[in-house]
Amino acid sequence: MSDMAKLRRYHAAVWDEPVVMEMGRRGRRGIMFPAAEPAVAAAVGCAETLLPEGMRRTTPPALPEMSEPDVLRHYLHLSQQTLGMMGISLFGTCTMKYNARLNEALAARPELAEIHPLQDEETLQGVLEIIHRFDLALRELSGMDQFVFQAAGGADAAYTHVCVTRAWLASRGELGKRDEIVTSLQAHPCNPATAATAGFKVITLPLEENGYPSLEALKAAVSDRTAALMINNPDDMGIYNPHIKEWVRVVHEAGGLCFYDHANFNGVMSRLRARELGFDACMYMLHKTFGAPKGGGGPAVGAYGCSAELAPFLPKPVVTFDGKNYHLDNDRDDSIGKVREFLGNIPVVLKAYAWVRSLGAEGIREAADLSVLANNYMDHELLKLRGVSRSHPNIDAWRMEMTRFSLGKLFEDTGVSAMDVQNRMVDYGIDAFWLSHEPWIVPQPFTPEAGEMWSKEDLDTWIAVLGAVIEEAYADPDKVRSAPHNQAVHQIKGAPLEDPAHWAMTWRAHVRKRAQSKAD
Amino acid sequence: MTFTHPFMANSVPAIKKEMLDAIGAPSIEALFEQIPADHRMTRELALPPALRSEAELRRHLLAILRKNEDCETNLSFLGGGCWQHHVPAICDEIAGRSEFLTPVWGTPSSDHGRNQAWFEFTSQLGELLDMEIVGLPVYSWGCAAGHAIRMASRLTGRHEVIVPRIIDPERLSVIRNYCEPQQMPSHIAVVEIGFDAGTGLLDLAELESRLSSRTAAVYIETPNYLGVIEAHAGEIAALAHRAGAEFIVGVDPISLGVLAPPAGFGADIVVGTTQPLGVHMNCGGGTGGFIASCDEERYAREYPSLLVSIAETVQPGEHAFGLSLLHQSSYGSRENGKDWTGNSVYLWAISNAVYMSLMGPEGFREVGELIVQQAHYAAKVLAEVPGIDLVFPGGFFKEFVVRFDASGKTVRDVNRALRERGIFGGHDLSAAFPTLGQSALYAVTEVHSRSDIDRLAASLAEILSR
Q1: What is the pTM (predicted TM-score) of this model?
Q2: Are B339 and A372 a contacting pair at CB < 8 A?
């Protein structure tokens, strides 16, 4: 039980590490390059004469001058001043997983790291084979007909979809006429944002009491102006929309496409397939569901898959296999072209393929099972804590792989917010939880996602720490509100970040503004 | 039947039972009650068999990877937006640290070191660029250019952008997607400007004739896609500004130890790639882009990307790093935000920060000088090979175009023959730039030695003499 978990002592590393711009001494070197060989210099002369006048740099950049070991130690200190999943990270919507280090070792080999994307396809057969094999695996998981990996994140895959939607509409003479994309309030912000960037109007359906928008609201929203539906299911509250097949039918009848943002695939993988629900396209995040590391926000891949009808519009090239050799098909007249240069983040594709091969069908089913079991275990234990509730308490069905909780009661009782609790939990070595995407549908939200990696002991520790922080909030709210106390640094002051006189996105801006405010 | 897996601590049957008992559920299957029966897959997934042992999995993956040929075993002169530069060993050491590699997001206190590394990325790049705002990276150079053009369109209320015809066709395709088809109400028309056939420089007369009160931005690159340093950049800036347009410049940051930062010749927004700064090519997966500008509020308020700022903490004398202007991003404002943002290539920003700390001003000067000299040496010795002409004779940084028309051979034939000799020849430009004939773009960097270049020249002489 959670209250049995023993809380560990923890304190972050504190190095008081200066900003690198303040470090070093003139004349030190961190790296050296050879001078041009005498024959080279003799043949072409010195570098300066080879550069157009007026285009040469006249003032050296004011970069730090450091020795190589000092650079290494500086960044090691910074890594140590980063909790970085060394604790327990149940960061909801991001599906924290183990990232197998075998994959890192393989991706670092020259057979991948030292490959140029414009090499002849005959020299890229290993890369293309991985892409093709993984494409086949995702086709099996989704029922779609073709995947591409050019999009460099989930949001980029959503953007790929709106570009594909434009091309599909253009092919039917409907571009400019069908100018609306329908989504829901709980769809990830990247869906409405990419739709708007692509030039579409966005219709956002509100949630109703069952936790999803009503079918009636959808029917009222679609028309001969509907280009596409972009939707998650389940959403971040762990609620599955049981009418989704009917939704797809309604949108198709109105003449629009249906895009399944599979950000929350972890709980449903192996149990349902996007294409069988009627969707025309879907997206998986390989850096989340498929075990590739997140890197603190990429490099990432949004794997975009679609039906045969939409495949001609996919970004190019598409990898094909003739039974013997793999090819890059660039000869695709209807393609949207590129959403990003080159073939995509291939190392991430390798790592995701490795994850699928390591788990197999049985392992993928097990991962879905464990993630839903773990969330319901969390749900059961967290609701025992004082001041904690969850969204849609009227729904008593087991939740999917995530639940949206609220600390609204705690806030009312003590003035301690979800962000305060987050700041205090990191004092116990627990990585920050996720609050909620905008807009908040419950007060003081938090959204843990247990996933399949974390042990029951880890989950119990996490729950016990939240319990301890809540007790502190009732006993000594200021202690929580002024947290963290055991971290690398104290609470940041938020107001200067929004003030043009103080914000400083670079050291040089900081130095200028600091001098200005001293002068004032 | 029991199933355990090294990645899943709770896959032990006794633990699953303990958890089910705790919540009072009869079975795991019962937990999926929300999914209607007719939504469910009716058969088991058909995937290749699991390779649960690390040894088996390694053998399988390595066998596939070994079907690649790489630029370490071969001698490569490929460039065109992704380059083989030296990656210092400690860039890999730091980027491989678990604290940076695996997490997603913490608080400014618990992510302090990571946020500081990001700030050191923006701060050092800001010194190279002479600019006060640098955003966290976006996906690629093309994506950075696309966002910058949209920023300029919002800043000016205009809907036309001028771009050079000498541009990576892939990057131009990315830009066109950001500019939207003409049927969309916020469409930005893309106007291409030609170049001087002798020098590769932008055609200033054509530029002047196309500038108008509709022009939101003039976008150029220096060095341009074909390697040429845009010697008239200052004049282009003046023309753009006279028309009331923003001047956006794309740069390769590794050139900035020897080349002038664009702010000095009038750039309002600077974009470029981050891959040369300590990131392996990764088959194009090392790609990243940046957006930078002056610190005027009207520019700051148009950034779509995340911005990290230094700020004081509640403890006197202590600093931390937090996100600034998050509200204007898509996270804060959904469809009303500035374009969109999401996961990007933030791990590479840390590699970039380490790289720039190692380099310092002298490292950038040295590498820049070495590259310029070696590239010109390569151009010179290749031009001496019968059958090869230099398309643009000088004024380039690390890339240059050679033409094989006089040899009667195609780039394709030449590159095939080079490959038999363990050399990856320059990128074939004949399809994208037909007016240049059978031409190829050769890239020379600090990883090459004089003997590498001489070997290339000797191989070409042999191939073309047949």
Answers
A1: 0.98
A2: no
